[in-house]
Amino acid sequence: MSNSFNLSVKPEIAAVAADIAAAIITIRNNSSGFATGITTVLGNIATQNTDIKSVVDAIADPQLPAILTAIGDNETKIDSIIAVPHPGQSAPKMVSLETTSTSFVDLINIADGSGFLTGLYFWGLREATEYLYIKITIDGVVIFDGTQRILLTGFPIDSMQQGTISFLHRFNTSILVEVKTENGSNVVAFFATYLEDE
pLDDT tens digits, residue range 51-68? Predict the structure, then answer.
């Protein structure tokens, strides 16, 4: 007995191929619709981006000039603060003078310079009562006119007849400090401290 087996799948393959062909035709027929849909979606996204930008611009535009102005003002203020000299940028100086003069003599005389006057110190070198006068002119303006009498008592010398005047006065172009005694009865030592811009 001979064995024979004959199975034909051609009809089934043909049916699958037909289905695939139909599917391809369907995709092709609808491809324009897919493209249109994609284009529509992309257009909607672009419109939404435009709307968002409009909202941001509406918020930012009225405020931006004020913000930029404020930034500019702050930069100007910072620059002005940086430009202002301060004691840390200056060199400390000291001058001294002993006098019995009854006419004003110079203790500090800077005709072209800038810095800070920081202090005046004085004491008598004899046991005699005396009056002192101090005149201070800064940048051509008299700030201490020299008419005030400052008493230096005639206590014994070991009691340190002395006085101190503290300052932190800025001079931008010049400073003149003049001193004198009233009657010359006591030798007076004057010291002045100041900072001069480097």
Answer: 667 766 666 667 667 777
